[in-house]
Amino acid sequence: MFRSRWRFLFSVVFTALLCCLIIALYFVLRPSSILRELTLYGNVDVRLVDIGFRVSGQVKELYFEEGDFVKEGDLLAVLDATPYDSQLVQAEANRQATEVRLSNAEILLKRRQELIGVGAVSQEDLDNATMRRDSLLADLLQAQAAVLVARDNLAYTKVFAPTEGVILTRVREPGTAVNPTDPVFTLSVASPVWVRAYVDEPHLGSIAYGMKARIMTDLKNGPVYTGQIGFISPMAEFTPKTVETTELRTDLVYRLRIYVDNPDRILKQGMPVTVKIPIRGK
C-alpha cells in the first residue's frame, strides 16, 4: 500500500510537470500574430515613353507599326540627314583651315622671336605675332567644338528604342517635318509595370516598402504574378470611384504602387487585378 501511494503521488507530480512544460512551450513557441492576407483591388499602370528626335528635320523612315514589339537599341526612325551631313563637312573644313592658319602664325611668331634679339623687328611686331597665334588657338578650339556638335546632330537624326516595349502609337509618318522632342512614337514599356491600388487607414500600419505581393488577373487560369510594394503615398485621398471596395466610397485611403515583372507581357494598361499581401494580424 505504501508503494501504491508513492506511485500515485509520482504520477500526479509528473502529470503536473508535463502540463506546465506544455503550457510553457505553447507560450514560448506560439506566433506573436497570425499570418493572413490583405486583399486589395487595383489596376495595372504601364509606363509610356514619347520618343522623338533631338534635332529638327523631315522624317525619312519609320521602321515599326503600332503593336510591334521592339528591343532596347532597335532603330525606330531616321530623319533626312542631308543638311546635317553638309554641316559636318563644313565644320571639318573650317577646322582644317584654322589649323593651317595657326601653323603659319606659329612659324611667323618663331621668326619674330629669332629677329627680336638682333633688332631686326620691333617689340610691337612680336606682340602682334603672339596675339595672332593666341587668337588662332582659340579659333581652333571653337572649330573643334563645332565639329563635335555637327557629329552629334548627325547622330541625332536616328532614334533608338530606350527599352523593350510595344509601339502603342505611331504619331508621325514619312515626309513629316518635326521639331526637337516632337513625338514620333509612343512606347509602352514591357517590364516592369506597376499596379495602382489603395489601402484604408486601419491597414496602413500593416504594410511597408518592399513587402511582397501576389497579383492575379481576371483571366481564366491566368498566371499569378509576384511584385513588391515600391511606393506608399504620404497623403490620404478619397476612394476613387474606379476602385471596387466593400467600404463607403467616401473613406480616406492611401495610394500604393506595387511593382510587378511582366515577362509574358499579359499585363496591359488599365487591366483590373486583385492584390494579396501577406501581413500579420491578431
The radius of gyration is 37 Å
| CATH-defined superfamily of the largest domain | Helix hairpin bin
Q: Could you report the average pLDDT, rounded to the nearest whole number?
A: 84
**Number of beta strands:** 14
Number of helices: 4
CATH architecture of the largest domain: Orthogonal Bundle
- Distance between termini? 52 Å
Broad structural category: alpha+beta
Model description:
- It is a single chain.
- The chain has 3 domains: 1-30; 34-48 and 190-281, Efflux pump adaptor protein, beta barrel domain (Elongation Factor Tu (Ef-tu), domain 3); 56-187, Orthogonal Bundle (Helix Hairpins), CATH 1.10.287.
- It is an alpha+beta fold and 282 residues long.
- The chain has helices spanning 2-29, 82-116, 123-155, 201-204; strands at 34-45, 48-52, 57-62, 69-70, 75-79, 158-160, 165-170, 177-178, 183-189, 193-200, 212-217, 224-238, 252-260, 272-281.
- The chain starts with a helix and ends with a strand.
- It is built from 4 helices and 14 strands.
- The model has no long low-confidence stretch (mean pLDDT 84).
- Helices cover 35% and strands 34% of the residues.
- α2 runs antiparallel to α3.
- It has a 6-stranded antiparallel barrel.
